[in-house]
Design goal:
Blueprint: E1 31-34, E2 38-39, H1 51-64, E3 70-75, E4 78-83, H2 85-93, E5 98-103, H3 108-121, H4 127-141, H5 145-152, H6 156-164, H7 170-177, H8 183-189, H9 194-207, H10 211-223, H11 235-250, E6 254-259, E7 262-267, H12 272-283
Parallel strand pairs: 2-4, 3-5
Antiparallel strand pairs: 1-5, 3-4, 6-7
Helix pairs in contact: 1-2, 3-4, 4-6, 5-6, 8-10
């Protein structure tokens, strides 16, 4: 059984009140609901939960109980979780069968917005998870960037910059999602070409570069003057040139023939005297 809660534990944080319709009397206590009747949030923006952090929360809950209610909405077979997934999972790990919950009727698009806000306020979302959540609000619910900003309590420019992370090359997105680079690194790498991003992200991680060093690396790569590669020599023309040089040097007909593993040089002579002359020329007169 979880301990009693005071009113200050009920709120989910600044900015959420505007998203959550207040249908119950002010100051009403949270309900204790069975965990078995809580369904997961299909709009949960967080894709990964660190196991050690979850275990630490479970240890705390085992001693102190769930200090902050989860947020749910009623569905036909129980409750659907809107915010508080980590608390529910940690409560299960701690052996609890019930958790305190605030029950609200919340529109689907607001369920995603509430989940985003709660996770952002708790620093539970990485930048890529946040970007995908904003994209879902735009694609699935037709919200503009201004509307997304209003619903999640962010500046429009912040939403726009976060969405731009989805234009990064996949290796950069993966490095950011896994915490191998920061959002500042990712924004710096966005200034490079697609092939440059793939190349540079490896260098940034391997050399543990700062954001400023990454920006400088991208700038140098971008400002590097383009050099037109020299046209490839025509192998037939090159062979003809070398044959002619050998003819002039030896004073006789020479043929060059390439093969897969090398080739051969055919030097023709037409008398014993000419053979002796070519032999002396090739060996430097040493016999």
């Amino acid at each position: 059984m979880t301990p009693p809660h005071t009113e200050r534990h009920i709120g989910l944080g600044r900015g959420l009140g505007a998203l959550i319709p207040q249908t119950s009397p002010a100051g009403a206590a949270p309900l204790e609901i069975p965990i078995s009747r809580i369904r997961g949030n299909p709009y949960q923006p967080r894709l990964r939960v660190e196991q050690h952090a979850l275990e630490a929360l479970a240890s705390s809950i085992a001693v102190h109980g769930v200090l902050q209610p989860v947020l749910v909405t009623e569905v036909f077979d129980g409750y659907q979780l809107v915010a508080g997934e980590r608390r529910v999972r940690a409560a299960q790990m701690a052996g609890l069968d019930r958790v305190p919950a605030i029950v609200r009727q919340i529109a689907k698009r607001d369920q995603l917005a509430v989940a985003i806000v709660e996770n952002v306020q708790r620093a539970d979302l990485n930048a890529m998870e946040e970007a995908h959540a904003y994209r879902q609000l735009a694609d699935e619910f037709g919200l503009t960037q201004d509307e997304i900003a209003n619903r999640v309590g962010r500046a429009r420019s912040t939403v726009a910059n976060t969405l731009r992370l989805l234009d990064l090359e996949k290796p950069v997105q993966e490095a950011l999602a896994e915490g191998n680079i920061s959002e500042g690194h990712a924004r710096a790498l966005a200034g490079a070409s697609p092939s440059g991003q793939r190349q540079l992200v490896e260098a940034v991680m391997a050399r543990d570069l700062s954001v400023r060093q990454t920006e400088e690396l991208v700038r140098r790569l971008r400002d590097k003057p383009a050099i037109d590669p020299a046209p490839a020599a025509d192998p037939n023309t090159e062979m003809d040139r070398m044959e002619e040089d050998l003819r002039r040097a030896l004073g006789t007909k020479v043929q060059l023939a390439r093969s897969r593993k090398g080739g051969r040089i055919v030097i023709e002579y037409y008398s014993d005297e000419e053979f002796s002359r070519l032999f002396d020329r090739l060996t430097g007169g040493v016999s």
